[in-house]
């Protein structure tokens, strides 16, 4: 074990040669090995991955005429690489073959070799057989649908209801196989692995950059024909929502809701400091100072996760700063963040992070910010109406807290009005795409919009779903948000919608640096631009 | 070897059979330092855990406003909530099945090769060790995609068997290190005399070596078990249905965006952690009996 | 020295095959992908193209985060292979005397290592919360009324705080060493005591040299565990503030699964493996590992 690391390629290949019995010079054994497995798709992909690499290498080598010496080196290098790659693939395939073997053994213990192979083949063919059966009218089509709306996620209850209703109504035609992926991180991490292996589920949520990945990798289904074939449903979604998230001019995603977001404030604390919701950002800052003087922490900010409450304020400062700033906050994927509005906004945020927020804001989570507000420790939080049920929950908020809270538009009369990106169909064939569309329709139609409004405070896509008198009674803050939203002069979208996912992470990463004055607002916008540029087109 | 007879002869050592007790007349300052050190170790080890444990019986309000106070009354609703929010019961079953089988598989495979590597000289031994060491160094994020493809190709995607194999493989370098270095401490004379008595390779391994190597297996087993029990990322990536998910996945049911209830989250954490502590305490007794066996052999 | 290999060659091979198969199943394909793609431009949703050393050039010439990650990773490996192992061995030597508390301490000390790193990260995050966390509450109770240190996100304390989340918890080292100590024949200690050696002397001159192999193993395991430290940092600081607590696994995770840049991430992965190889080499040299004690 001394010289543990005396790794030389010679040694490795020697070792490998000894264990591998498949001849490398012919491609036949590969197929032979794989026939019982019948899972060539991925292998092909990897094969082509390497083949592509090789082709590129050859290209570079013939790009300019190399000297004899160079050429010798290059071909030798190529030979070595090719040998290594073939060796590697052979290794992998042996392993896979062994895997098939083990699988077969577990399904039919004690079977003789030939039989074992057969049973392996039979088992792997089973899904195919299932598929053709599914074409028969009686078998429901199975579609896969990953969901992060589980556990303590705010809309998990609505999700359960919709799934149950759909199963009752259309269960004989479409069976939705749900994969629960708790938390946003788990959701996007797993979907990215599935993007890379070209195996996205039938219906996914396009948030956190998934829409672009699904479109770029060619897995998203263009929904134009589906929508045109069903004008009634198309009207339920509305042109505004459909046009908000086009890619290459085509609708790939159908939104499930509209977010109207202002900010909540604690009326009692405001009264104590003798202030009312600010009309301008200067007044907002003065109010913060007054609250601070009164011994009250003004703002619930957080910079962990996606820096949600902090980014809402920044977006509002930019979005209400005039036409240029408002246009910036309404257009997706800005190439540059180096605008005067952004710099000015970040300077204000810097002041807020330094003076007007809690000690746990830096690196804090949404939970920290929300709890601070609901415990009456801070006077304001920027967040949407989905938070309102928590105000009345004695487990989470001060007693009678829902009566203390008011909602306001941002200074300069601004309000978020942002369509959720929505659901994307990524089915491989028409049969599944049709089934997925059926589910998508149920998940985004009028009934679902109504449910989302009533239980989660997510606003409907069009005015086909009215805000009922009853809702005004049960949850006045939601109704109030709607009326405040109508009056607002400026509307704009979330950074989570206009920026790529990695830019959001960059925000979260840079805010502490900004608060500790390790970077200036001017330097921060440059870094944001750099992050945006890392998303290659 | 300290037989009872010898112990009686020498009254200065403890009459206990394990008797490795400090002598009288040890420098009191050294003793003080020693106890202080142990006390600090104890405090930092159990402090955060105890705090979370106590907090799991509090309401969210109590947690936020009086961090150090004892719960006003023991509140079990957090635990009830935890079971409601995540499919904990099912995940328990899966975790136990996967961790136990994964550990057994790992120990069997690595016990065999660990022994051979510790005892025999052969060509390629260094290569094997180098490659295995390398496995210890591969970043998990880089393994995610290739392993997903591998597992999918052999038809073990969304299959408990796939997770078991993967976990046995994750523990490969650590178990191999531990087991082979434990085998190295066993005097060769034992095997040599067994061979002289006419025992074959397999019998020597099974009847002479394995019983002595119990402490090694105990420690490697504990580490492997914890690895299987606690792994999250691959459990999520390599399975789809609830029927194959493991307990750490449950923790994330309490961590969604826009969630703010610490009580249920703490309760879930405790529920995930407690079984592994119990299993450790139980397995540890195996290690202890192994320790005693080891003490006798000299 | 070794037992007769040729005589038992069949058994030797038979005993090695399962391990080799398991290794190939897990790592062969992964390693090929890792090395191969580190020379490509491989961004999620885009075509893969060969770019030679460009990823490496980009990492080493103008990527502050990467260089900081390498630096932090190396520092943490160093601390873990020395301080961490020393703490673990010290506890083991104390517990080996089997005074009344030894079983209790051994169990309790293990708790932070039993808990999954995601859960542990969550615990520390709450425990260290500047506002309602227990640590600051204790300090406030002790008299500092307005104490609200943000341990994890303050530039002054973040690196130290993150380090303390794993550095003192060396129970794995302790149980490994304890198992090995039990294997040392009692007679050796007996005769040393008869010769009038102190406990400290016995520890220094008898136990430690005999523990050389296992301590080396511990140093390798502890050191290289820093190459996998992801969950704890991700759950607490996410590498921040800035890149103050970033390490290579975080860097790789962010580049692969946030920036979708698998090529660059895998180039960093190859660097990580190289750092690991050097670590293992240095440690196994330092401990002259692999030689039997007898």
Question: Can you tell me about this structure?
Answer:
The complex is a heterotrimer of chains A (537), B (298) and C (294). Chain A is an alpha/beta fold and 537 residues long. Chain A has helices spanning 9-19, 28-34, 40-63, 68-107, 113-135, 156-170, 184-196, 210-216, 224-228, 231-237, 239-244, 267-273, 281-293, 308-319, 323-328, 340-355, 366-374, 388-391, 401-404, 430-444, 446-456, 469-474, 476-487, 495-498, 501-515, 521-533, and strands at residues 141-147, 174-180, 203-205, 246-247, 250-251, 253-254, 258-261, 263-266, 297-299, 378-382, 405-408, 414-419, 423-425, 490-492. In chain A, the strands form five sheets. In chain A, strands 9-10-8-11 form a four-stranded mixed β-sheet. A three-stranded antiparallel β-sheet of chain A has the order 3-13-6, sandwiched between helices. The relative contact order of chain A is 0.11. Mean pLDDT of chain A is 78; it is low at 1-135. Chain B has 298 residues and is an all-alpha fold. Helix content of chain B is 72%, strand content 0%. Chain B has 15 helices and no strands. The radius of gyration of chain B is 24 Å and the shape is globular. Chain C is an all-alpha fold and 294 residues long. Chain C has one domain (60-286): MetI-like (MetI-like fold), CATH 1.10.3720. Chain C contains 14 helices and two strands. Chain C has helices spanning 9-37, 54-62, 64-95, 102-114, 117-127, 134-141, 158-164, 171-182, 186-194, 199-210, 212-225, 231-236, 248-258, 262-286; strands spanning 40-41, 49-50. In chain C, α8 (171-182) runs antiparallel to α11. Chain C starts with 8 loop residues before the first helix and ends in an 8-residue tail after the last helix. In chain C, 59% of the residues are buried. The mean pLDDT of chain C is 88. Classes of the chains: A alpha/beta (537), B mainly alpha (298), C mainly alpha (294). Chains in contact: A-B, A-C, B-C. At the B-C interface, α2, α3, α5, α6 and α7 of B face α1, α3, α4, α5 and α6 of C.
